[in-house]
């Protein structure tokens, strides 16, 4: 699993990266909110860990922006802020949990594992509205059309999940390779699988952006 970490304190950031990588996670770390936000729209992550007071866009604004663009992945704030208003702002921006500095790395492990295991986003709205009367149920990983479930294979579900996570943006063949297959595959195979999926859906739902990839519009 891949984690995005935003933390501008160098020593703490490196400690967290080394700790999580020892647990088997892949970690992309950033000290600037702007750099982290760019990465969030270029790669697929399973969880994000965010400090609040960082250079560039702060952690609250980063998560709010991510949520507005359909990035519905678990998020945990790592912060020294302790007042109630700050906590409320964090939860309103879409986080699942808070870790207050200073903290033990074992606490971080437990909170990360719990967020991934319980899928804390299930407590929020589980349905994403898509064009042409399609609705995606993020709780049960089901695509509905006019309230009828569309039968999809495991590969088709992974393709659709990645497109929905990045809706409004083009998903490249490289992103499909990483998220769906976890390794390099023949681009022709990607096209075949996506075309099979498109035949099951309204032709307008998944757009082919020539030479770049595929997209579901907002």
Structure summary:
The protein has 218 residues and is an alpha/beta fold. It is 41% helix and 20% strand. It has a five-stranded parallel β-sheet, sandwiched between helices. Strands 6-7-8-9 form a four-stranded antiparallel β-sheet, with no helix packed on it.
Care to describe what's here?
It is built from eight helices and eleven strands. It has helices at residues 10-22, 33-40, 59-68, 84-92, 105-118, 154-165, 173-181, 187-200, and strands at 2-6, 26-30, 47-50, 75-79, 97-100, 127-130, 134-137, 142-145, 148-149, 207-209, 213-215. It is globular, with a radius of gyration of 18 Å. The mean pLDDT is 85.
Throw out a few tags for this protein.
218 residues, alpha/beta, 4-stranded antiparallel beta sheet, 11 strands, 41% helix
List the helices and strands and how they pair.
Blueprint: E1 2-6, H1 10-22, E2 26-30, H2 33-40, E3 47-50, H3 59-68, E4 75-79, H4 84-92, E5 97-100, H5 105-118, E6 127-130, E7 134-137, E8 142-145, E9 148-149, H6 154-165, H7 173-181, H8 187-200, E10 207-209, E11 213-215
Parallel strand pairs: 1-2, 1-3, 3-4, 4-5
Antiparallel strand pairs: 6-7, 7-8, 8-9, 10-11
Helix pairs in contact: 6-7, 6-8
């Amino acid at each position: 699993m891949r984690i995005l970490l935003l933390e501008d304190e160098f020593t703490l950031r490196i400690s967290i990266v080394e700790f999580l990588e020892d647990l088997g996670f892949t970690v992309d770390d950033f000290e600037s909110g702007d750099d982290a936000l760019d990465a969030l729209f270029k790669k697929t992550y399973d969880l994000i860990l965010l400090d609040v007071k960082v250079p560039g866009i702060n952690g609250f604004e980063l998560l709010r922006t991510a949520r507005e663009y359909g990035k519905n992945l678990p998020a945990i704030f790592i912060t020294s802020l302790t007042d109630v208003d700050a906590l409320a702002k964090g939860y309103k921006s879409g986080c699942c949990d808070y870790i207050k500095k200073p903290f033990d790395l074992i606490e971080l492990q437990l909170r990360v594992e719990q967020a991934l295991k319980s899928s804390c986003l299930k407590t929020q709205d589980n349905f994403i509205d898509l064009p042409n009367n399609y609705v995606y149920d993020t709780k049960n990983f089901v695509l509905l059309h006019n309230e009828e479930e569309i039968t999809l294979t495991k590969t088709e579900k992974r393709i659709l999940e990645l497109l929905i996570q990045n809706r409004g943006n083009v998903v490249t063949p490289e992103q499909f390779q990483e998220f769906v297959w976890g390794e390099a595959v023949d681009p022709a195979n990607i096209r075949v699988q996506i075309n099979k999926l498109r035949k099951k859906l309204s032709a307008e739902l998944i757009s082919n952006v020539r030479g770049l990839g595929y997209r579901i519009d907002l």
